[in-house]
Specification:
heterodimer, A: 428 residues, six-stranded parallel β-sheet, B: 818 residues, alpha/beta, eight-stranded mixed β-sheet, three-stranded antiparallel β-sheet, 17 strands
């Protein structure tokens, strides 16, 4: 500590005499601090510039996969998908545009993307690789309009191409924008929103940051179009009289498993409920040891099923109850199946997210109670009796209002999105 | 070199400003101490906006950092690596911030440093403070030693400084506190032994600073609601980007005008001619000071104007910058060569009313176009102006890079150590075997020899062996038309060149120049030319000395004049001349006075090389040439400009043609003395002649009715004093008293006179008429216009021509040919 202090003093002496040692120099007494300020600033500039250079070199060292794309003619609309799981988001829009005879190019970073086999006449698709090579390609696109679900355009490596006139973001969840990572949609020209709450969040962020107002469309969620169509494909067996419980925790430490442990799941299993545990896919990526230990501990119960399938639809169709914390799945379960949901009243921390920067109302907090029964962490041990009670009551749940508020054009959003994109094109 | 440049650019201009303030204050009060206090007050007042800006910037920067702080720490807490970097970068972007802004916030400090250094430099070296007392200070040039030899003033200064520190706000952190305390004490150490004048300045500075700080604090409390730092977005640090497009265009246009007029044009002039004598440090310093003051003026003018006037300022600055750009770069007109800042074709400056009208109309159209562009395509116009500024900057860089090669004289000028190059050493090196020496005194009217002789025969005491030939007729009445015949003989006179009509005049001149030297070189003469006129392409074995070294030699011996005669102002006038519309140029040229920028002092510079050469000839000549030597020395005296007074001292105000003529002879006399002392006089043939006479008093030999019979003709070049050149010859081994001969000679007889020194003579050169007298000799004299282009024209435009026989003084002997 003393050495550090001594070093500081020596440093200040050095700086001071650096400016005063020559016979010409003179500083007014209080501007001396500015001298130090200047030196620190100078070092900061050098550090920042070097860092900038480092990332630029790193980024530019990756070859572009641009050559694979035919750029002889400027494309009208380009869709970019990060993976196969987003095909349900894009396909209803692409189909709608195909009907309007608008040519589209579908680019994906997933070799197994169903979009690569899209049979539509006006649609071409390409695989552009992953990571930085894909980014390099995306940064040099030539199109009138580029549509993507990927956030943080012009924030991360994904930059706006100067040869693209308009960037549109399609949301793929009814969750509000305050739970997005920093600067998520700041540099898009338009956003195809799920509901009014998202528009409110975006306007709130724009005002706080002094950003120009984006065009916000009342679109809805396009993947519900697909899910609604698929509803009849997945149904619970009529002869199955068991109560099937789907537990779908989020992967963060504020989620169900971290907050309440697994004893309550054991109780449910011991009570004879058929339980399906569907951990968030990110668990297996970010916290594999944690989830593996839990699965191992619960695997002794024969009435437990672990669901790791890409689509939650079959499991949701089979389930009678959903127990979750705060995950996108509760919206799907509520809006598509309208079955009872039990939600753990955990904290919804905004740390590191968009919501942290603004003082806007967090829509999810008020909405949770309208989607299901909220239970406090200390009530978790009584879960079995709560489920029993709800099953016996067998009340019809009316979620139509909240559904209307959260999602525009339920089941027909693809057609709406297609029209909205064609309007953008007309106005360019 | 770099530090000197930085000193000239940043410190010296401010020192000049301080000197001006100090001198004015001293003149007004008559008291050095009060003058120092006034200087301190004025400088402090001038620094106030800077201080205020610095504080504002610093505060602004801190506010931005403060605004970003919560998000910044959240990003640092939740993200790492590349992701963190990208988020921070975006955060900076949204707050219009860059770490470099921290440096901008310190700009106030950086801007203060030159001012403070200049004050230190100025006062520390101010000699006039020595021995001057003020109040209780006995000598402002020495430390005060007020109490038992201890200097008290530095302690008072430190006390005030420390008080200032407490008033302005005690540092928040330890480092802040330490740095705030260190500086007053550092100054105590630094200034303790300084002259009390300097410490007085600093003490007063500290007092004014204290008042300033107190006022700043007071007003910032009063105006807390209006505190600009509360609204950082409004006061963007990136000043230029925050400016309105109009102000940007205005500033860029002014920058263009400044760069073209004061940098690019002067550089082009310096690259193309050696005429200018420029004191570079002085020029840079004056220019920097002007830039500083004019920037303040023009920016204030814009700042305090109303909207309409702002638009007018933008439009006019754009209009003037465009005019200056177009005329400087694209519109060239041939006004002939510029000789001593006098144009050869001043008549071409005169524009007819019709031409003036057309040009004015075109300018009006340009004005309307610019107005339209300014109203409709402001953004594009701004981009275009930026590009133009860039192009001008690039052109300046290119000119700067090429300058040392194009004008080496300029670069070496500050160094007054003169070293003679090989060819110059040759010029000043004489042989013990045989020397032929020709002095061509440009414009020396032959009739003056008689006048001088009558007045002071002793002046010619050293001219032993010389014969003066008053009955000499010039071949032509101007250098451009006589030089070829003087060098090459009658064959190269105007009438023969015109008759041949084969080669360009330049080719004829070059041929004439090389004619005699070729024979001399064959006879093992070492041939040297000093300042050969009209740039002939001389044989590579001939040593050619130019004027540069001798001009420097002159400056070395006359340092006062080397300062006085710089052409800084004239150069700017010439630059302006190139940049204004054609119809304005005549007024700017002002009959060669360049609106007063070209003063009599400048005349000195044009004549320096000739007098420098005389000095060098007398002081630096040596006798160590092994073979024989031939030297042809063309000196531009007593040709205009005349610079000497009756005592042969430089005094342009009292200079006369006659003085220069007599002084030239006196210099030659001194040289003859040197030759005699070195025993080479007898082995030397010396010819002193001129290429034409001058518009001066005629010789008394001319018949009174001469001017009635022979009209003076074009430019009065047939007046008696003009047609009679100087011709004096001293042959080998001649030692008698100065003799006079009335045989009819011409200055075009020079080659014959030179070649008679060689036993076999020269090819194509006639016999020496002084040795082989010609009966009934007829000579022709021509008055010809200066050719516009020596390289292209084959004939002279003859304005008058006479055939003369017998005595030139009798008009009856003159027969008009044309």
């Amino acid at each position: 500590m003393f050495t550090l202090h001594l070093f500081k003093i020596l440093f200040i002496f050095f700086i001071t005499f650096f400016f005063t040692s020559t016979s010409y120099a003179y500083l007014d007494p209080t501007t001396g601090s500015v001298a130090i300020y200047f030196i620190v600033g100078f070092l900061a500039v050098i550090f920042y510039s070097l860092k900038d250079l480092f990332y630029k070199i790193r980024f530019s060292s990756h070859p572009s996969t641009l050559k694979q794309i035919d750029h002889r003619n400027e494309h009208i609309i380009i869709f970019y998908s990060e993976g196969n799981n987003y095909w349900n988001v894009f396909s209803p829009i692409i189909e709608a545009l195909d009907k309007l005879s608008i040519h589209c190019l579908y680019l994906t970073s997933d070799k197994d993307d169903r979009g690569l086999e899209c049979p539509l006449k006006n649609v071409k698709s390409k695989y552009i690789g992953q990571g930085l090579p894909a980014m390099t390609t995306l940064n040099h696109l030539r199109a009138k309009l580029v549509v993507m679900t990927t956030p943080q355009l012009d924030v991360i490596q994904l930059r706006r191409s100067k040869n693209v006139q308009h960037y549109a973001h399609v949301v793929h969840s009814p969750v509000g924008m305050l739970f997005y990572r920093k600067f998520a949609v700041d540099y898009f020209d338009s956003v195809l929103c799920s509901g009014e709450h998202q528009k409110r969040d975006i306007r709130c962020l724009e005002e706080k940051r002094g950003l120009p107002k984006k065009t916000l469309f009342s679109t809805g969620l396009t993947y519900y179009d697909v899910m609604v169509k698929n509803l009849n494909s997945f149904k619970k067996n009529k002869n199955d009289n068991n109560i099937n419980i789907l537990i779908a925790p989020t992967w963060k430490t504020t989620g169900l498993l971290d907050q309440s442990g697994i004893d309550w799941i054991k109780v449910l299993l011991e009570d004879g409920y058929h339980v399906t545990l569907r951990p968030h896919p990110q668990f297996f990526i970010s916290r594999n040891d944690f989830i593996a230990k839990i699965i191992k501990e619960l695997s002794v119960f024969p009435n437990l099923m672990i669901d790791r399938s890409p689509s939650p639809e079959p499991t949701m169709a089979m389930a009678d109850f959903l127990i979750s914390d705060f995950s996108g799945i509760i919206f799907d379960f509520a809006f598509l199946y309208n079955k009872p949901i039990i939600i753990l009243d955990n904290d919804l921390p905004l740390g590191g997210f968009e919501g942290e920067d603004v003082n806007c109302e967090v829509w999810e907090i008020a909405t949770r109670s309208k989607l299901g029964s909220i239970i406090k962490p200390e009530q978790i041990s009584q879960l079995s009796s709560i489920i029993k009670k709800i099953s016996q009551e067998n009340k019809t749940i009316d979620r139509s209002k909240i559904k209307e508020q959260s999602v525009y054009h339920f089941g027909t959003a693809g057609i709406v999105a297609g029209e909205q994109l064609s309007t953008i094109l007309k106005n360019l | 070199m770099i530090s000197l440049f930085l000193f000239n650019v940043f410190i010296l201009p401010l020192t000049l400003l301080m000197r001006a303030i100090f001198d004015a204050a001293l003149q007004a009060t008559g008291n050095h101490g009060v003058a120092i206090i006034i200087l301190s007050a004025v400088i402090s007042a001038l620094m106030t906006p800077l201080y205020s800006f610095s504080k504002k910037w610093q505060q602004n920067n801190q506010n931005k950092l403060l605004n970003m702080q919560p998000t910044l720490s959240s990003i640092n807490r939740h993200y790492k690596g590349q992701e963190r970097y990208f988020y921070i970068k975006t955060l900076y972007r949204q707050h219009h911030y860059h770490p470099i802004h921290s440096l901008k916030a310190s700009m106030g400090l950086l801007l203060q440093i030159p001012v403070l250094m200049a004050a230190f430099h100025f006062l520390l070296h101010l000699q006039s403070l020595n021995g001057v007392s003020f109040l209780f200070l006995k000598d402002l040039g020495r430390p005060d030693s007020l109490v038992w030899g201890i200097n008290i003033l530095p302690f008072i200064m430190t006390a005030i400084n420390l008080f200032s520190v407490f008033v302005s706000g005690w540092g928040k952190s330890t480092s802040n506190k330490v740095s705030l305390l260190i500086i007053p004490f550092a100054f105590l150490v630094l200034l303790y032994h300084s002259p009390s004048g300097l410490t007085l300045y600093w003490t007063m500075n500290s007092i004014f600073y204290l008042i300033n700080t107190a006022m700043h604090k007071f007003f910032s409390k009063q105006n807390k609601n209006n505190d600009p730092t509360k609204n950082p977005e409004k006061y963007s640090i990136n000043i230029f980007n925050a400016l309105s497009p109009s102000l940007k265009i205005y500033l860029i246009s002014l920058a263009q005008i400044f760069l073209i007029l004061f940098v690019l044009n002067p550089l082009t002039l310096l690259s193309s001619t050696n005429d200018f004598i420029i004191n570079i440090p002085n020029y840079i310093s004056t220019l920097s000071l002007c830039l500083l003051l004019s920037s303040l003026f023009f920016i204030s003018l814009f700042r305090y104007s109303n909207l309409f006037f702002k638009k007018c300022l933008t439009l006019f600055s754009l209009f003037f910058s465009t005019i200056i750009f177009i005329y400087s770069i694209f519109i060239k007109k041939n006004y002939g060569l510029m000789d001593h800042f006098t144009l050869h074709f001043p008549q071409t400056l005169i524009q007819t009313p019709w031409e003036i009208m057309i040009e004015a109309l075109l300018l009006l159209v340009l004005f309307v176009i610019l107005l339209f562009l300014l109203l409709t395509f402001k953004k594009q116009l701004l981009q275009y102006q930026m590009m133009l500024l860039l192009a001008i900057s690039v052109a300046i860089m290119i000119e700067l890079l090429g300058l040392p090669k194009a004008n080496p004289k300029l670069i070496h000028q500050p160094n007054f150590t003169v070293s003679f190059k090989k060819e110059q050493q040759k010029m000043l090196s004489f042989s013990k075997e045989k020397n032929i020496l020709v002095f061509l005194l440009d414009g020396f009217s032959g009739g003056y020899i008689n006048k001088f002789y009558k007045k002071d025969p002793l002046m010619f005491d050293e001219f032993t062996g010389f014969t003066f030939y008053p009955n000499t007729l010039t071949t032509s009445t101007a250098t451009w038309s006589s030089i070829a015949a003087i060098l090459g003989g009658d064959r190269y006179s105007v009438q023969f060149i015109n008759q041949r009509d084969e080669k360009s005049i330049q080719q004829e001149i070059t041929e004439a120049y090389n004619l005699v030297p070729s024979t001399l070189l064959q006879h093992d003469f070492s041939v040297s030319f000093f300042n050969p006129a009209y740039g002939p392409d001389l044989n590579s074995n001939i040593d050619v000395s130019d004027l540069t070294t001798y001009a420097k030699y002159f400056q070395k011996n006359h340092p006062f004049w080397s300062y006085k005669m710089t052409h800084n102002q004239v150069m700017i006038m010439v630059s302006l001349f190139r940049s204004v519309p054609l119809f304005m140029r005549q007024h700017l040229y002002n009959n060669g006075r360049w609106l007063g920028a070209y003063t009599s002092n400048h005349l000195v510079s044009s004549a320096t090389a000739a007098w420098g050469f005389f000095d060098a000839l007398i002081k630096e000549s040596r006798v160590h040439e092994n073979g024989k030597t031939f030297k042809f020395i063309h000196l531009k005296c007593p040709h205009f400009p005349h610079i000497l007074d009756d005592h042969c001292e430089i005094n342009p105000r009292q200079s006369r043609y006659q003085n220069d003529a007599v002084c030239a002879l006196k210099k030659i006399r001194l040289f003859l003395q040197w030759m005699k002392a070195n025993n080479i006089y007898d082995i030397s043939k010396i010819i002193i002649l001129s290429d034409h006479g001058w518009w001066a008093e005629p010789s008394e030999d001319f018949y009174p009715h001469f001017t009635k019979e022979i009209p003076p003709g074009y430019e009065h070049r047939f007046m008696p004093s003009m047609v009679q050149p100087l011709l004096m010859i001293k042959d080998f081994n001649q030692n008698k008293k100065l003799a006079f001969s009335n045989i009819l000679l011409s200055n075009s007889d020079l080659p014959s006179m030179i070649c008679s020194a060689i036993a076999s003579g020269c090819r194509n050169i006639k016999a020496d008429p002084t040795k082989n007298l010609l009966s009934d000799r007829t000579l022709i004299i021509s008055n010809a216009l200066i050719p516009k282009n020596l390289d292209n024209e084959k004939r002279f435009n003859v304005m008058g021509q006479y055939r003369v026989q017998g005595m030139i003084f009798d008009p009856a002997n003159w027969k008009k040919i044309r």
